[in-house]
Design goal:
Layout: H1 2-12, E1 16-20, E2 36-40, E3 44-49, E4 55-59, E5 67-73, E6 79-86, E7 91-92, E8 95-96, H2 107-110, E9 116-121, H3 140-148, E10 151-153, E11 161-165, E12 168-172, E13 175-180, H4 181-184
Length: 196
Amino acid sequence: MTMMALEKGIVWGADVVMMQEQHVEREGYNISHPGYRLVRGGRMMTAIQRDTHLEFLEVDKGGEGDVQVFDIKYLSGRKMRLVNVYDQLRQEGGVRSQGRPAQTARWSEIMEWEKILLGADWNARSDRWDPQFPPKRDPNLLENLMDEYDLIDVTDGEETHTNTRNGETSESLIGFFITKILMADRLQISTDLATT
């Protein structure tokens, strides 16, 4: 999946490809790509095009590797912040623990910028962004961020996760982008470019 996403990124001319659930901690899992510099987090990775005209600075704001924060500067001098998030319980010995490292990030510092885009596998369900999937599950971080910082979901509301359990298939929206309301009208969203 990782190589497929990176190859699609090259075809589309993407300066950045954000991936979650990248098991980069496993021993022997060492990949590289000629077109992207790979910045690994805990269970995620951000790929930055090697010949991009953008200037990237990674900023540590906590989250134990499950939150990657990049300050981006354009040639024009314009700036924005890009945040890659994986919000899920840690697993220890195959058993999920109670800790969600992304929730320990210094969110008030992360959200200081007006021009900010957060892409994430939120692993949270709420009728606020997915009216097709009650009941709520782990929505507190995302709902609090949306309320406190006037954030809005800028995706199309299409399900991003399919789960089959006991022969029953369900879909839900747990991976998507949010931004401050003031920036939402400056974004162009294309849903036909998604990877699994």
